Sequence to fold (219 residues):
Amino acid sequence: MLTERALRVLEAHVFLADPVADARAFLFEMLDPTPDRGDMLYRYEHSLRVAAIGRAIARAEGLPEEPLVLACLLHDIGYRDSLALDEYSRHHLIGAEIAREYLAKAGYDAALSREIVLGVERHCLTDSLPADMTVFQTTVRDSDDIDRCGPIRTAMLLGRCVDEKTDAQILAACEEAVARTKRFAALPRGTATARRLIDERCEKRVSLLEELAAQARMA
Ligand SMILES: [Fe+2]
Ligand SMILES: [Fe+2]
Fold:
């Protein structure tokens, strides 16, 4: 069941001929990053990065590019509504419902739409992936995770590890972050390309955290 707001946005949406440009526009309308909602602009830009990663994996692995880019663009489309409902932990389910309605209204291929909707619905899964989860669906979640361990999120994490902290607190924060990064890096991935990108980004993050920890130990 879509919220009143989501229904209004979908109703007002003017469909473009290009499905990718259209999904981008619809995502922007649905997140509605008004000046007071920098978090929604962040979410929009994150989704564009996830779509670029999904495109690169699709090309490297021979996966269907357009539907994968669409799924990546739409993966967090339920964000604004889930926060408004105080149900962030259901943002993937709310997003899947919005994506289903949107793709049906766009007249997108039914079988591909099902894959896209499942990709959105399953993008938060970590280590226990359903047996019927396809490489396409796993790639949506992998692309999200690759952005989540990329330079921007690493910079945000490093900032939190040091901001106004004593050396002892920095050390503890870094050790905790290294352990979390290693657990994250060990999760199963859908493709060799995703595996490589995650490994590269997590290794870089761990090495920066270890440099920080080493400096905190010097005092
Ligand atoms: Fe998400
Ligand atoms: Fe995301």
Notes: The pocket of fe (ii) ion (ligand 2) is lined by residues 46, 50, 75-76, 144 (CB under 6 Å). The chain has eleven helices and no strands. Residues 149-218 form one domain.
